[in-house]
Design a protein that fits this description.
The complex is a heterodimer of chains A (119) and B (222).
Chain A: E1 15-17, E2 20-22, E3 32-34, E4 37-39, E5 42-44, H1 63-74, E6 84-97, E7 103-118
Antiparallel strand pairs in A: 1-5, 2-4, 3-6, 6-7
Chain B: H1 9-16, H2 34-43, H3 45-48, E1 65-66, E2 71-72, E3 75-80, E4 100-106, E5 115-126, E6 134-141, E7 147-156, E8 163-166, E9 181-190, E10 198-209, H4 216-221
Antiparallel strand pairs in B: 1-2, 3-10, 4-9, 5-8, 5-10, 6-7, 6-9
The chains are: A mainly beta (119), B mainly beta (222).
């Protein structure tokens, strides 16, 4: 399940959008014990000014991203806008039966987007 | 030569998660050991709904580390004994004549790149209590050969709780990869003449660190 992308172009400001990955959907539900799925989320949106100068409590902007947004505002043809990408990520753990019927707990870093930022 | 067909999305995701890309369908149902549930709940922030990088108790989770067991690791396996699942009842014998059991653990799922950081043998016995306690001895056993060297001896005051023995550094060298299979001979002798115990269950809790899943950034954070 994903939050529908806004129209054809990445509309709205750069922010986290909901994306839920269901293990049942990919047919793993028989051997994945837990979780049933996880909120992976994704980033989408414009990185024009002032979004690039993210507000209080958001991810601190990278100077380079601000520079690019300024360049784009001054000369739209030069180099394009910064990209809206994951800026802070979280791990998940998966509990499952492996092919030898062992119960296995695997830990994966950087699987969930907590925050997006312009880079 | 024709290039291999690109994997479908599910196979690609399995590959990205370093999981065996062919899973043979429904596994043999068996209860999930409580220790594995506990480790999962302790580790998975989404399960505990408390946000990233914190445990339900509020402590910060270190990447590539199994807090509850206090070792580095990102894969924990609960491996059941593959020996003779049904043991013939052992005749009660005099002290010193108790039977030996052979337990076999299939470690073929552990990849060479994984570095073991903990290998805890867990044994459940059934027996009448013996105030003086027991002595457990663990020997390397090879198929069809006599007893190998004694790997460790351990005093067991009571059989009321699971008996645990740390095998890392005893059953195989601490810095070596896990063997593909581990075959052990166990003997549990009462310290004073008493009826022998019965081995009800044997399992191995193996913690490994797969550096390929441990991002440098995560390590830096640590």
């Amino acid at each position: 399940e994903a939050e529908p992308a806004v129209g054809g172009s990445p509309g709205g400001t750069c922010r986290t959008r909901r994306l839920y990955v269901s293990f049942r959907e990919v047919g793993w539900h028989r051997w994945v014990i837990a979780p049933r799925g996880f909120l992976a989320n994704y980033c989408q949106g414009q990185c024009a000014l002032p979004a690039t100068l993210s507000g209080p409590g958001g991810t601190p902007p990278l100077n380079h991203a601000v520079l690019r947004a300024l360049m784009h505002a001054a000369a739209p043809g030069a180099g394009g806008l910064p990209c809206c990408v994951p800026a802070r990520l979280s791990p998940i753990s998966v509990l499952f039966f492996d092919n030898s019927d062992n119960v296995v707990l695997r830990h994966y870093e950087d699987m969930v987007v907590d925050e997006c930022g312009c880079r | 030569a024709r290039a291999p067909a690109p994997p479908g999305p599910a196979a690609a995701l399995l590959q990205a998660l370093w999981l065996p890309n062919v899973h043979r369908g429904a596994p043999t149902p068996r209860p999930v050991p409580p220790v594995m549930w506990r480790l999962f709940r302790h580790r998975d922030p989404q399960e505990a709904r408390v946000g990233p990088r914190r445990t339900p108790q509020g402590t910060t989770l270190r990447p590539c580390h199994v807090e509850e067991l206090g070792v580095a690791g990102n894969i924990v396996r609960h491996i059941p004994d593959r020996g003779a699942p049904t043991r013939p009842p052992e005749p009660a014998r005099a002290a010193g004549q108790c039977p030996e059991w052979t337990v076999v653990f299939d470690l073929s799922a552990v990849e060479p790149a994984e570095r073991p950081s903990r290998a805890r043998l867990e044994l459940r016995f059934a027996a009448a209590e013996v105030p003086a306690g027991w002595e457990l001895s663990i020997t390397q056993a090879a198929e069809g050969e006599g007893a190998g060297p004694v790997l460790l001896r351990q005093a067991v005051p009571t059989l009321g709780t699971p008996v645990r023995a740390e095998l890392l550094g005893a059953a195989w060298p601490r810095n070596a990869s896990a063997p593909r299979s581990l075959r052990l001979a166990l003997a549990l002798r009462p310290r004073v003449p008493a009826a022998c115990a019965h081995l009800a269950e044997a399992s191995l809790l193996l913690v490994t660190l797969d550096p390929r899943l441990c991002h440098p950034l995560a390590r830096l954070r640590r």
